[in-house]
Amino acid sequence: LALALALTLRLLRDSPAAALMHAVRRGDLALLHRVADGVGGWVELGIDAGAFSRELMGHAEAFAHDKQCLDPSDILHEAYFKTTALGTCTACIVSIDGTGLRAINVGDSGFSVLRRTEGGSGGGDSGDADHPTWALFFQTTEQTHFFNCPFQLGTNSKDTPADGQSFTIPAIHGDLVILATDGLLDNLFTGELIQLLEKFEKTWMETHGLSPSREVLADLWLQQEFVDTFTRILGNKTQQLAKDEFRRSPFYVSAAAAGYAHIGGKLDDITAVVAVVNNPEAKFATINVDGGED
Length: 294
What we know:
Helix content is 29%, strand content 26%. It is an alpha+beta fold. The strands form three sheets. Strands 2, 3, 4, 5, 10, 11 and 14 form a seven-stranded antiparallel beta sheet that branches. It has a five-stranded antiparallel beta sheet with strand order 1-13-12-6-7. The protein starts with a strand and ends with a strand.
C-alpha cells in the first residue's frame, strides 16, 4: 500500500539516537511506520538516552509481527509495558491499510498528511499554473506539559500510552504521509515543506524532460528512487535550517509564545519517514480524533 524511506541525521555528537522507522507488513496491503525520540537529559545522568526508545520500538516491531497486529494503540501499549530500559521517549506509530490510516502519538513527534489539490491553491510556489499543487490535509499537534517538555513514556514519567492521541484518518491514493521527530518539526514550517516538495517535483520533471501532469507525478511517487531522493533532500534541508543561527524557526515562534528568547534553528536529531499511499480504491471518509489533552 505504501512506499517509504526513513532517514535519521545526527546533529549533536552526544545526542540520543531517535529510533527510526522499520516497516511491518501484513500481506501486500498494510504498512506500519513508527518513530521514537529519546529524551536527551538522561545523558547528564550517564544513561544512554536512546536505550529506552530502541527497546520500545523493538518490542513494538516484535508484537506487530508476531500478532499480525496493525492497531497502533495496542502495539504501543504492549511495547510500553514490556520495556525495562532506563530513560524516556516520545512515540508516534502510524499504520496504513485498506481502511485508511490509524495512528497514536505521544509527545512532540508527529505526522502530517499532504494531499494533491486541483492546482493553483496549494501552499507551494512552483510558479507553474499547470503543476498540480499540494495542500495540508491533516497534521498532529504536539503534546507538552510546558514549553519544551513533551509528554514522554518511560522512567519516572506519569505519562502512558493512554495519554496519547489516537487518530483514524482516510488515506486516499497518492497521499503523502510524513512522520517526524521534533528535530524536523521545530525547524521546518509546513509551508516550507510544501514549497520544498513542489520545487523538487518541478526540478525532477525538468531534468528528465517530463510534463507536469497529475498522472506523471502519481507514477513518479510510486518509484522508490523518487521517494528516497525527496526524503534525503528533506532531511538535508532541515539539517541546514537547524544550523541557521539567525532564522525565525518554528522553535523560535514556540519559545516566544511561551515567553522565552531563542533565535535561530534548533540543533537536534532529525528523523523523517516519507510514505506514499498506493491504493486506487481508497475513498474519502471522516477524520476521527480521540484521547489526549488540549
